[in-house]
Amino acid sequence: MAALPVFRWRLAPDGYATRRQLRAQGLRPGGQSVAAQLERPRRRRGPLVAYLYRVDLALPMRPMTPARWAALAKANAARRVCPACGRDAGYVIPASLGACVPCAFPEGSCDGIAA
């Protein structure tokens, strides 16, 4: 197995891009394996690593179909329903609370919340 080429942070040659950079260009890796990696040294921990893909092998992003839009809307709607009271909170329920704010902090039970 061949080792990946490693480049210093901000010194990658043209023709390589991260997933986010590909996404900004309207591309996706398209099944290709990681072609290289960037490493940013840090003082007390291991280096930060970013994986690079070849731009010439990248494929265009797939368009959103009506079925995919519907599935995304259904998933986002499910994130807004409170599991405790079953109501639509009107916002995404925070994972840290696990319920909508009125259910997580009933009146009078939390000293730090102003009524």
Structure description:
With 115 residues, the chain is α+β, with helices and mostly antiparallel strands. It contains 3 helices and 6 strands. The strands form 2 sheets. A 4-stranded mixed β-sheet has the order 1-4-5-2.
Short overview:
The protein has 115 residues and is α+β, with helices and mostly antiparallel strands. It has helices at 19-24, 66-80, 101-104, and strands at 6-8, 16-17, 27-28, 36-40, 48-54, 59-60.
Please supply descriptive tags for the structure shown above:
single chain, alpha+beta, two-stranded antiparallel sheet, 3 helices, 6 strands, 22% helix, disordered C terminus
Topology:
Blueprint (H helix, E strand, L loop, with lengths): L5 E3 L7 E2 L1 H6 L2 E2 L7 E5 L7 E7 L4 E2 L5 H15 L20 H4 L11
Parallel strand pairs: 1-4
Antiparallel strand pairs: 2-5, 3-6, 4-5
The helix-and-strand class reads alpha+beta
Silhouette: flat
Instruction: Work out the strand percent.
Output: 15-25%
Tell me the Rg in angstroms: 22 Å
| Strand line-up of the largest beta sheet | 1-4-5-2
Task: Give the mean pLDDT.
Answer: 90
Order of helices and strands: EEHEEEEHH
Task: Give the helix proportion (percent range).
Answer: 10-25%
What is the number of beta strands? 6
Number of helices: 3
Describe the biggest sheet? 4 strands, mixed
Low-pLDDT stretches are 109-115
Distance between the termini: 63 Å
